[in-house]
Amino acid sequence: MTYASQVAMTLPEIVLALGALALMLVAAWGGPSSTRAVSWTAVAVLGGACLALIGPATSGNTAFDGMYRADAFAGFSKVLIYVAAAVAILLAPRFFERTAGDDLRPEYPVLILLSAIGMGIMVSTGDLLTLYIGLELQSLAAYVLASFMRQDQRSAEAGLKYFVLGALASGILLYGISLVYGFTGSTLFEEIAGAYAAAPLSGDGKSIGLMFGLVFVFAGIAFKISAVPFHMWTPDVYEGAPTPVTAFFASAPKVAAMGLAARIAIEAMGPAEGQWRQIVIFAALASIIFGAVAAIGQSNIKRLLAYSSINNVGFALIGLAAGTPEGVAAVLTYMAIYVVMTLGSFLVVLQMRGTDGQPIETIASLSGLSRTRPGLAAALAIFMFSLAGIPPLFGFWAKFAVFDAAVRAGLFPLAVVGIAASTIGAYYYLRVVKTMYFDEPAAAFGEGDKLEGGLIAVAAIVVSPLGYLAIPLLSAWTMAAAQALF
């Protein structure tokens, strides 16, 4: 295979990299006045990266001696990542204009593009070194984004917490990578899988080293998907970061980290399924239960959605625990629907503004919203019911897919506990709906934005019962993507 054909497989990342570098120069010369132009151009660059997925980028081949994989699994994940990144860019101008004066700089969309490059590498990696490079590229941009509102103490605190705990998680992951390399002699996923198959984790020195490496690698990844017990950063960062950034954190990086976890579990450590499955099952159940219980007492809508993201990651991990093509396809289905539900919820949060334009984040401020903004209340109710997995909304299908995969894989007790625990989470979603429809009206919100309103309408339609019309296409696409790992 020629070098040119290998480079062609990485065309989405090349498009994003060249676009980010060009826009960085525009930002340097144009200053704050170029922000809007840079933002719309960044969205166009993300669209170009999506188009670049057609062809060699999803051919199913590997590039650079197996370090990069251009397959359908990476292609599906990248589409979700790029869409979520584009929405995060579109949401930012009005938020910063009304909240932080002139604090929005053209570097914001550039950082989103750089983070998208890292996430693309994460889901296409076939080697532990490219894994770490992609992860750090995504994380370094995310640390800056979390503290982007420089005059806001909460934003600065969120960025600092994210950086310190992220550095700790990176150290844990790097230690796991060093152990895996030390006991397998390679960083390539194929050779690592061969080493795990040749040396079952039976108790000798080498198997113990491989087991510790597996544990540390999955611990580092668990931080990135904010799975319990590595969730501690999520509520504070989600609350303190600017809302468009929080919407980005809750969607695109989650998809990238779940894709990375699936690729490592199936491709690199598939022969050690019995060991990593125990870790995934524990993280799944702990995330579902803790995310549901901890959200009950929250009064801030962004913190509630942070615990909701922890809870939903737990459900996605149930699909991964199955370790089958059906399980991986269920994970991809879940993440696709979750991204729409989450972005829709944060779009509604962006509409929560007083008449002076300042953001309001308390759940109490939603009181009587059905009488002051009936359309907005209906949309948020759809998102809450869908996140709770209540039929006939599309969120029910996401949960059904992962539970069905678990049952087919013989993990019936896991599915039963997951279904029982999902009833806990339904409580705090229904509490939000009750506040909007049955409490006395609070002060009315200010006028909404047409772009945000249009995106809310689109998201609400997708997660409504009309979303079931997409099941044949979504199922075929996710199964083809999942088969690429096997």
UniProtKB/TrEMBL annotation:
GO terms for molecular function: NADH dehydrogenase (quinone) (non-electrogenic) activity; NADH dehydrogenase (ubiquinone) activity; quinone binding. It holds the Pfam family Proton_antipo_M. GO terms for biological process: ATP synthesis coupled electron transport. GO terms for cellular component: endomembrane system; plasma membrane. The chain crosses the membrane at residues 6-30, 37-59, 79-96, 108-125, 162-183, 210-233, 245-266, 278-297, 304-322, 328-350, 376-398, 410-430, 451-471. Belongs to the complex I subunit 2 family. NDH-1 shuttles electrons from NADH, via FMN and iron-sulfur (Fe-S) centers, to quinones in the respiratory chain. The immediate electron acceptor for the enzyme in this species is believed to be ubiquinone. Couples the redox reaction to proton translocation (for every two electrons transferred, four hydrogen ions are translocated across the cytoplasmic membrane), and thus conserves the redox energy in a proton gradient. This is NADH-quinone oxidoreductase subunit N.
